[in-house]
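Notebook entry, structure prediction.
Reason for the run: the old model in the group folder had no record of what sequence produced it. Starting over properly, with the input documented here first.
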Amino acid sequence: MALAKASALIVSATLEAASLVWMELAMFASVAVLYYVFVRGHLQSSSTQPNPAAKPRESSQRSAQTPVAEGSAGAEREELAREAHSAVIKLWQRVRDNEAVSCLDLSSVIDSLRKSGWSCADVATEIKTALDGNEALLPLVQAVPATLLRDDSVEMLDRIVALLLERGHSVDLAIHAGLMSAQLRRHNYTGVAATAARLPTDSLTAKMRAMLAVAGAHRGRLDEALGHLRQMPEVPENTRSALSAGGAAQVLALASREQRVPAAAEELRRIKARLEPKHLDELVAVEGRRRGAAACRELLEAGALLKVPRGQGQYQALVGVLKQHSDGPGLLDLIEELEAEKSRGPAGTAVGEPLALTLLEACRSLGQADLPGRVAQLHAAACAGAPGSKVLVATCAALVARESWEEALGMYERELAPKGVNLDAGLTGALLKAATQAGRSDLAQRLSDQAGSARSAPGGSVGDLQRQATLMKACTRERDLAGASAVFSRLRESGAQLTPQIYNCFLDACVQCGDVQRALAHFEEMKRLHLVDVVGYNTMLKAHLSRGQNEEALSLVKEMASRGLPANKVTYNELLHAKVIAKDRRGTWSLVDEMREAGVLPNSVTCSILLKSLTVHSHAGDVKRVIDLIDDVDESVDEVLFSSVIEACIRIRQLDLLSNLMRRFRSKGGFNLSAPTYGSMIKAYGQAGDIGRVRELWREMDERGVKPTSITLGCMAEALVVNGQADEAWDLIHLQLESDERRGCINTVIYSTVLKGFAVTRRIEKVFAVYQEMRGKDIPCNTITYNTMLDACAKCSAMDRASSLLVDMKNSSVEPDIITYSTIIKGYCQEGDVDRAFHVLEEMKGDDKFAPDEIMYNSILDGCAKQHRVEDALRILEEMKSAGVGPSNYTLSILVKLLGHARRLSQAFRMVEDLSSQNGFRPNVQVYTCLVQACVLNRRLERALALHDTMVADASCKVDEKFYAVLARGCIQLHQPAKAAEVVRAAYQLSGHSLAEPARREAVPVGVEARALEELAAKLQGGSSEEQEVFARLSADLLEQRGVRISECRGSGRGGGGKKGRPMPGRGSR
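New structure, fully documented this time:
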């Protein structure tokens, strides 16, 4: 009876408790509905636009509402929202300790807390407290980051992520990436670094590294930024870099301020970072004003390395700097460079009106007597022989400024007066005075009559229209749509009969300046006035294709045909370019066929576009079709097209094809290549190891009288050095120094290349001989130069010379970087002077400019391992953890070796387990190999064999032949040759062994190093009869099933039977 009563009481209590929980949940659901209706619903309704098609009655009812009524309704809604938030908070406080909280919307709770005045820190503390008391909340907290990221609640997201990580729970890498991106947008650069510091180093993606590099650059930490760039993988061809153009500009700007542009540019080039011309223009202008022409040249070379088109803006900035620093010789060199650009034809940089005016002003200011005429000729070439009036006036003013009166008067009569160009009062007065003194009364009278006359409005003559068209084109080049619009409006108001050319000029201005809607409206007007032609259609076609509007572009082509305007080469080239960008191979060649059927012959532009479509994976038939197309082009092959051919051959790795094409093109009439083109080919053949072709190209360039630039010389020196010809590269420098014309091309980069060549081959005396020559010839040494030499000292065990280098470095005001310190530490550790390495580390930390990185710590750990300094190594490891520098598998390998030799095997195993789990990576085969060696040193063969079973069970860890060789040798050393035979059987995937089978069976077994097989064979053959029997069976199975003959391994070093002890192809693989 008592039992029945007790059971009834238990059932009653259970039902009561359940009813309370369900009541709580029902109340929360009702509050959530209230929250959605009065908070979320209000937000949605407030953002909804009124329906313009609503009934008049409804419209009149809405308009009848007074502002007072609307204000009252708004106040009511706000009050209801506050009540809803309050109800959500109260309910949260009541149910947060219950276990049945799975239907709780934690993001709504956070929203209510924030809108009720709670700070992000208070909300995070509240959630942490609740989580400490109720682990059932964990799934809800883990789901919150995605919602916070979507709502752009960055500070709250940061705190929730920190809370989860603090409790040992992982957060999706995408959440971290999104948080870093949001922090970067808010200019919270310290926050970006802090977010990344929570993650294991090897888990950072290329995009994260890019964001960290940008954040480091904004914080003024160039070494940090470059460090992240160095850890980004190389970008495949035709793949966009993870680093934005603005980020690349920020890194380059900081590098310029620290005078380390070459190093930064090389890293940016390696990851194929983009740099917009406008960014480079701004950098050149700013850094030029700060540091002078040398900074401008350095940035321009960086732009060339990053393949930034050389534009007028960059030259204008450089001219301004030369003028500011009164650098007349520099201005002369610049004009010679522009003349060289002019000789390149359309591919060169044209001296437009703004650049010409800037050059002329610099000539006037610096008193350069012979340069204004050359500038005018450059501008005339850019304007099809019709320079603008502003340039003509500026040229005349420059001649007046240096008192070249006869030339100034002659120019006025020849160029200005016939075109009716009005001069300002000052120039008119100066010319009038010169004419009077020269006794030319008729000219003096004309100038006197002209003085004070106003400029007439544009007329309708062909000459006037041409000048206005030129002016609009100048505005378009400068992206000045307002200026082009003003010119076009004046022409229309003048009542002149406008031609299609004028309308096309303004249409192009709209398209180039990005105002597509205005361009469409203008194009419709052209069609109404029957002023549209093929040029206009091609302009609009380009606009559609640039915006990815392929359907609109095809419709435009059909419309052209319906108006009787057949597509021309420009039309087809624009369409082909779009197909190539879209990687539509079939569409590309279909369009080429259509082009031929329409009777439109491909030109050099067509071929250049098709060459860009070729990659290393392109079909051989496509390559042949493009080459055949180039042969069929009626035009002669110019350098622009040949440069495209060079790039394509390098990209598809067919330099033999390049050599054949070069001979064929020369036989068809020939053309002269420029120094940069020769440099590109020399570099390509050098990387391919064809040193004979490199020398041939250099001789050819010399025979044809092509003057090498510093970049060309750098390419030649690098090609020689990478092919082991450092002495020849040094001789090349000496040969250039003998020529007055070429001496100026020798720079720090070229000498540093030769230094690196001798350093790699460990010819330390040659390294210092080159260094002394640099100092003797006043060739400045930069950080890279000194780092190269310090690396040579480290490799050649000549660290006694490092001190003098550091003194020279300090005297030359060259600041060391993190690589400098890392190289010095590595050198001392390799020489066994670990105490000196510790001293350098402490000195660097005391300087507070650089923080030790993983490479530096690993160098010191390796030095401690070689000296068996266990306690020092463990202290460095703790310091490494405290500094937030995550250890890697390489770090683990060093520590395992050290602990193994110190007979601390158990500690080595714990170290592997702890460091790998704490830093989020798995031990690799090198770590396992070191552990096996440690087991053998400590005579624990059973643990070594157990390691094999552990490793092969991990499908992500790939076993190699060295691992099996170490394990087999360990068995032999511990007098277990039969067990070593089992290890070999496991390595070759043969039956008859007791080791674990791998989780992932390789198609071809990894095998064992040949030397280990020889040692085992010798041990078994010289052992007992049982061991000899083991050898006989093993030898027979290896030969029959894997094609490996143990006797053939002797003397081969590595590779039993085949290469590296691997089975012969096609023999018994399972």
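Summary: Residues 1-70, 452-459, 1048-1070 have pLDDT under 50 and may be disordered.
The old model has been moved to the deprecated folder.
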